Amino acid sequence: MKRPYLKAAIAAVGFVMAGSVGVMGDVLYQNTSTYLGYNLNTFPNGQEVGEQVWQNPLLPPEYLTNFSFEYASPNSDPWSVLVDVRLYANDSATLFNGYPIPGSLLYNSGWLALPNPTAGAQTIDFALSDLQFPAAGGSPLDSNLALPTTFTFTVTFSGLTEGQSVDMPVFDPPSAGTNYGDYWFDLSGNWELLTNSSGAQIAFGAEFQGQPSPTPEPTVLCLGAFGAAMLTVMARRRQRRG
Q1: Rounded CA separation 141/163 (Å)
Q2: Is 234 exposed, middle or buried (0-12, 13-18, 19+ CB in 10 A)?
Q3: How confident is the model at residue 41 (pLDDT cuts 50, 70, 90)?
Q4: What is the 3-state secondary structure (H, E, C) of the chain?
Q5: Which of 114, 123, 203, 223 is a plausible cystine mate for 20, CB 3.0–4.6 Å?
Q6: Average of per-residue pLDDT across 167-182
């Protein structure tokens, strides 16, 4: 069955990287080095969109210490936009085109104020304290579970008014770990895998760090072997190109 395609709204913009906090542990996944010159936009209020990633294969399963992701907006006036960030294990028994959809919820930030990217771009960082003590309505990471070999992080925006938008800058290739070049899109409670109809790579700018031993800080579940996972990545990319 051929994967459906969504003609993603892609915008080329000048991208200014905002400074991020220093690395607090091993780099599990990093895709913030090579900006491809375009963004995925625009997300309506309440739309959950996610990127599935694979951890650095040179590292054993580790425990998440902090992460960050990039976003951008053409708006320069003040706003009151909120963001909800989630991490999922791709362990659902429900498949989309043969691939497990995001399943077990590993972390929910709750609704947070999203800083207005007045310079055209911004990095939002989640430290250990954010992982352990999410905002109201969120759920913390489990300190007894290691980060899955593969997982999906998602963003949902709220509070956007007419004329406002939030974009996700597209980066590739990752300097640590890998991704599929597509993204998960929650359509009315049903997850779908989407790519750009032109074949353009869709991979959000994000970085995850961790450490090899359990600590009192929250962490997430370890799944699967990387070798088998890479076969899935290769097959999935071949299907996208077909």
Answers
A1: 35
A2: exposed
A3: confident
A4: CCCCCCCCEEECCCCCCCCCCCCCCEEEEECCCCEEEEEEECCCCCCCEEEEEECCCCCCCCEEEEEEEEEECCCCCCCCCEEEEEEEECCCCCEECCEECCCCEEEECCCEECCCCCCCEEEEEECHHHHHCCCCCCECCECCCCCCCEEEEEEEEECCCCCCCCEEEEECCCCECEECCCEEEEECCEEEEECCCCCCCCCECEEEEEECCCCCCCECCCCCCHHHHHHHHHHHHHHHHC
A5: 123
A6: 94
CB 148 within 8 A of CB 56: no
pLDDT tens, 79-122? 899 999 999 999 999 999 999 999 999 999 999 999 888 777 89
Looking at residue 121, its pLDDT comes to 82
Sequence letter at residue 29: Y
Place of tokens 């399963």: 61
First to last CA, the chain: 11
> Over the Cα atoms of the chain, what is R_g?
17
Nearest alpha carbon to residue 35 among 17, 53, 10? 17
Q: How many residues does the chain have?
A: 242
Beta strand pairing call for 63-72 and 121-126: antiparallel
Structure tokens at 41: 């936009």
